[in-house]
Give the backbone structure.
Amino acid sequence: AQKITQTQPGMFVQEKEAVTLDCTYDTSDPSYGLFWYKQPSSGEMIFLIYQGSYDQQNATEGRYSLNFQKARKSANLVISASQLGDSAMYFCAMSYDQTGANNLFFGTGTRLTVIP
Amino acid sequence: KAGVTQTPRYLIKTRGQQVTLSCSPISGHRSVSWYQQTPGQGLQFLFEYFSETQRNKGNFPGRFSGRQFSNSRSEMNVSTLELGDSALYLCASSLAKRELGNEQFFGPGTRLTVL
């Protein structure tokens, strides 16, 4: 069975510092996609970054980068130069060919708090 | 371009009642997915609709159903409400692509409380 694990329930980071949020996954499907979403207190899920299982390079989107280590089955999110507005819940998610591209499996999330 | 809208934003019902939630996708998006978010179970996929047909379904009882209209708007219905149905229900729309990198855009959610 496919599984997403986020082992950090909460993280603190000083403003302007970088932070890494961990995500590991388990699947036997060779074709999968990895996503990171941000959920502010308002509840809306905001897409941050995507990495495909066959992508050779790590994905980057502005201050967000995904540290993809396929052999270790990890897809950690790195946020550089943290801002106060980055305080939110962060979810790692996967989709698989077998279960459909629009069926996302989510981890339990990490609550990030940025300290001024 | 307007985002995904969900109505109502908040809802209070009692056990045994039924409820209908609505989702209007981004213009041009034909796929609508529904998710349930609870503190205990986290985020779980309910189902996906495309072209008025259910394309994918999660592991939820038959009390949870949905439909999609010709304008891609979708409704979700929960019958015979239970206390455990209290949750934030999120709707996500996307282009019809079935590619793994297909980005889903989420609405603000409907927070359902069952008393």
